[in-house]
Amino acid sequence: MHDSFDSRRSRYASVGVVSSLPGEIIDSIWIIIDMDLKGLVPLDNILTFRLLDKEGQLTIHFSQEGTEVEMDVDLPFPFSDNYPAEVYAYDDGSRETILLPSEIKQR
């Protein structure tokens, strides 16, 4: 069994994510995984991140099935209604990808 979300693995964002989120926000999700989540709870191979509007600024909300751990991380970026409501980080054992909900169903 491999350790989910190892920062030494190849990391990607889907075309849908890249076309709907700025690169800084995509990078911030990877940083949240590495700095805030890794070591806090055992991570499944699919992580859920909701993008929330907190007084005009972006807040990323993490949750994972099977655990009661939830976390909000306020980011220094303005919120946009054009952002997807939710994205997933998926680890298939050899590479890691941030995907839209519609894209995860294709895996």
Automatic annotation (TrEMBL):
Species in which this protein is naturally found: Enterococcus canis
Lineage of producing organism: Bacteria, Bacillati, Bacillota, Bacilli, Lactobacillales
Protein name per the record: GTP cyclohydrolase
InterPro entries per record: DUF960 (IPR009303)
Database matches in Pfam families: DUF960 (PF06124)
